[in-house]
Amino acid sequence: MIDILIVEDDTELSALLTDFLRNEGYTVSAAAGGEYAIALFEKYGARLVILDIN
User: By CB atoms within 10 Å of each CB, which of 1, 24, 41, 49 scores lowest?
Assistant: First the structure.
């Protein structure tokens, strides 16, 4: 299971969040779209999902 799944289509923001959270010791995966995010969640699970709703 991963700690945090980030769903964000802005690649710069996604990379910034991912780097910051990994430096804090979290296991992070990122997806740019909903279908890939669902696939990641179904395969690995996540304790927290950060979702861009726009």
Answer: 1
